[in-house]
Each structure stands twice: as C-alpha cells, then as structure tokens.
Amino acid sequence: MLVALIPACSAVGLSERAELLVRLLLPAAALAWYWRVLPPIQVLRPVSSVLLGVGVCAIWIAPQWLFPGWRGHWIFQNALLGRLGISASHYSLEAPLDVVLRSLRACTVVALAEELFWRGWLMRWLIRDDFQALPVGAWQARAFLITAALFAVEHGPYWEVGLAAGLLYNWWAVRTRSLGDLVLAHGVTNAALAAFVIVTRRWEYWM
After folding, report:
1. Would you tell me how many other CB atoms lie within 10 Å of the CB of residue 34?
2. How many other C-beta atoms lie within 10 A of the C-beta of residue 28?
3. Residues pairing with 82 in the sheet
4. Nearest to 203 by CA among 59, 10, 5, 64
5. Cα(2)–Cα(21) distance, rounded to whole angstroms?
6. What is the Cα–Cα distance from 29 to 50, expressed in whole angstroms?
7. Structural domain boundaries in the chain
8. Is the Cβ–Cβ distance between 206 and 90 less than 8 Å?
9. For residues 135 and 127, is the Cβ–Cβ distance under 8 A?
10. Is 140 helix (H, G, I), strand (E, B) or coil?
11. 15-23 contacts at long range (C-beta below 8 A, 24 or more positions apart)
12. Tens place of pLDDT for every residue, the chain, 207 residues?
C-alpha cells in the first residue's frame, strides 16, 4: 500500500499536502483495522532499541558526510538503482506542516509497515510457507541474507547503507525476537534521519 499510494495520488492530482495526509492516514487506518491479527508488538529492550536506531542513522549519513561526493559514484546512481532526487517541491519543503507530516509518516507508519513486511513476514516466510508457526526472528542464514539484500535494493542509491541497516535490523530480530523492538529501532532511525535532514537541509535523503 505504501508504494501503491504514490502513483495513485499522482493520478488523482492531489496537492502535495493532501498526498502527505493520504499517505499517512490510509496506511494508519489499514494497520489499525488489522491490528488484532498482527504479531504481538511489545517493546522488550527499549534503551538498546533506541541506541540501535540512532546507530543505524549514523551509518546512513556517515559515507556522504565523511566523503563528500561519495553518493555520486556510478555504483550508487545508475539505470538499475535510480538516481538521487528530491521528490518534494521547494514550497513543500519550506512548509512546516508538510515537513512534520513527512517526518511523522516516516517514523510511524513506514517503520511499522516495513518491519511487518521485512522481518515480520518475509524473513519467516523464506524459512517456511506456514510462517506464522515461526516466531519473529527465527534464524536461517539464507532467509537472513536474502531479506537484507532485498531491503538494500529497495533503497536504491543508498543500497550499501540499506544493506548495513538490513543486516543490523535482521540481527536485532534474531536477538530480541520482538517486533516491537524492531519497530522502535526503525522508527528512531527514521526520526533521527528526519531531524538531520531538517537541520542540515540535506533534502536528498528524502527521495
């Protein structure tokens, strides 16, 4: 749904703010509707999960911060992985409400939906079709690596830090077996990245 809403909103011709609201509220409504059938979302290690989330954010921004021009190499931007670009207009990025909506979406519904998909479903399904018979964080090397690789590809020009993030989130899944801790860590990563983007105005991190 998160991905499908992008072309759908464009086709309808919604304003940027309306699109941000739709892409926040519709997934939130869907998650609320299915909440009772979702795996338990309980945070068992809040401090460690927050620290992991901050650490993943540091990994995400470190290459370009330490080595200006790093992301411009062809290995990151190419026909297969795409190119860096700012999807929002200058007006939207200067509008405080739009920035708040974008940040809120990233650290709530995006973090929750992605963890439900990648580690709540895919990593278990790759081990066993009847994935619900397995706990979150069930270990198998093949499933662990495939999930991390696909998570990396999803992030296009940021694939190498996406791979690092995927490996760390997968490791935390195996370590905690807690979907709640994964959502918290992912949400903190996205919140910290949003704060970095807003303070430094490095909008290209919001592709």
Report:
1. 10
2. 16
3. 78
4. 64
5. 12
6. 26
7. 40-205
8. no
9. no
10. coil
11. 16/88, 16/89, 16/91, 16/92, 16/98, 17/92, 17/95, 17/97, 17/98, 17/101, 20/92, 20/98, 20/101, 20/102, 20/105, 21/101, 23/105
12. 444 444 444 555 678 889 999 999 998 898 888 888 888 889 999 999 999 999 999 999 999 989 999 999 999 999 999 998 888 888 888 899 999 999 999 999 999 999 999 999 999 999 999 999 999 999 999 999 999 999 999 999 999 999 999 999 999 999 999 999 999 999 999 999 999 999 999 998 887
Tokens of 51: 């620290």
Residue 78's beta-bridge partner residues?
Answer: 82
Judged on CB neighbours under 10 Å (0-12, 13-18, 19+), 154 is middle
DSSP classification of residue 131: G
Q: How many CB atoms lie within 10 A of CB 118?
A: 21
Return d(Cα 134, Cα 132) in angstroms, integer.
5
In angstroms, how far is the first alpha carbon of the chain from the final one? 18
Q: CA 99 → CA 16, 29, 79, 91, 104, distances in Å? A: 11, 21, 29, 11, 8
> Which tokens go with 147?
């999930």
Best CA proximity match to 198, nearest among 59, 95, 54: 95
Cβ pair 138, 179 in contact under 8 A: no
- In the block, which residue shows the tokens 């290690």? 45
Question: Measuring CA to CA, which residue among 127, 71, 106, 72 is closest to residue 198?
Answer: 106
